[in-house]
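Inputs:
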Amino acid sequence: MRSQEMTEKTMQPLDAIATDLPLADSRFENLSALIDGELTDDMAGLGIRQLSQNEAQLARHREYIAIGDAMRGLNAQHSDFTQRVMAALEKEPVVLAPIAKKSQRRPTLWLAAATAAAITWGIWQSNPRDEINPQLAATHQPATQSLEAMPYLAAHQDFAQAVISTQEMRFTKASLEIRQ
Amino acid sequence: MNQQAAVLPVALLTSLLTLNLVPAHAAEALAMQDAAVWLQRMSDAARKVSYEGVFVMQHGAGMQTLSIFNRPVGSAKESRLAAMDGIEREIRCSETGSISRVMEGGQVRLEKRLNSRYFPDLLPPDATALANWYSVKMGKHARVAGLECRQIEIVPKDVYRWGYVLCADKDTGLPLKAMMVNAAGQPLMQYAFAEIRIGGQPRIDSSKDSKVRQSEWLMPASHPTTRPISLETVNVTNLPPGFSRISAVKRRLPNKADEVEHWVFSDGLTHVSLFLEPAAHPIKSIRGQSKQGMINMVKLQVGPMQATVLGDAPWPAIEAIAMGLEAPTGNARQ
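Outputs:
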């Protein structure tokens, strides 16, 4: 299932932001590849086991998730969110099935949040990026979007038949395509 | 004008809301001319018939009870809706417009509403045109708030609008119950009278539960809430069939410092808002949807403007309008 080409690709050097990560095992040098879902089953399993045994790596992983959450407007949920991610890591490391994809590497921190979310829900999407899979992202409720939508919902109530609060709304990135 | 009175105990409200108003899929659609007659009859009744009563509105897990008074005045109507639970809210409508009054922390806040639509006055004054975009099917006889009514299903002919199932009073045609449904016939929200008296002359201001003096309904003249737009900020190149622009004003919105343009498109039954404001930074397109899918919205950039399309309409209607927005200069949508 996993090509040699892909395995080699995942072993590329870390993104600049992660190069100071104190890694103990040379076979698992790429935390970003792990959270990017680009490792093979064996490599991912090894990485998870190492992650759970190395407090320094675990702390860095938490930090990635926290920053990723903040970038996605999820910082308010961070504490509980991180705990759930950690619990999921401890319980079900095999959930991290790597995805065969021809990926263009993206900023590590952004992907940290997307990957962690997938673990938490026990769902492993073929591609966890929310602009491609809006349903996955829909379970998030970025506070910023709720606040931004509130004035428009309020104004539309002049014509709407139901009063909708922002808590009843879910938001996803839209990919509008021009119909031919 | 006949007089009818009926009162249901509050304990029956729950069962009332679960009354079977099922889409009459098996029924044949009326010919367009007959459909137009029924639509217009229900529309006229909501404005030209005097009535007072209490109705329940249910949306999702939420339920709200409102009292309503309505009487015809010349060719127009005078009406008052008052929330019977939660914070004090009232809406008054007359030929001069619609004003809402909300009590918040001991303060009274008056706001001019751009529209006077509410149950049971859901259909537009000229409802016959709706027959172009909706089929009408006659359903079974039912009973709501102690009155006999006839179930009438309003079925959209395309994907750009929600449908309705109404139950129209046997004698007057006044909708006693209304349910907005999606394409699968699942209810999105519903209204039902629990108590209604049809006929007579409801005295709106002397009602026992109206605590508001007439003078309190005067809008401060120095604070116009809306003003007309001067130029077309964007071009709308693609409206769903039957939709047209019914309003375009500049107004202030809650939590926004600057005025926003608020345009409204409607086929008479479905309403979609378009909000336009300068884009302070590049806009990433965001889609929003209410939990039951009734409200859809999208935010996108059109030239130098941020456009937010929002309505209680299916996603195809929102998407069609959004995709048809163009900057007047001919710049492509971004």
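Remarks. The first helix of chain A runs from residue 4 to 10. The radius of gyration of chain A is 18 Å.
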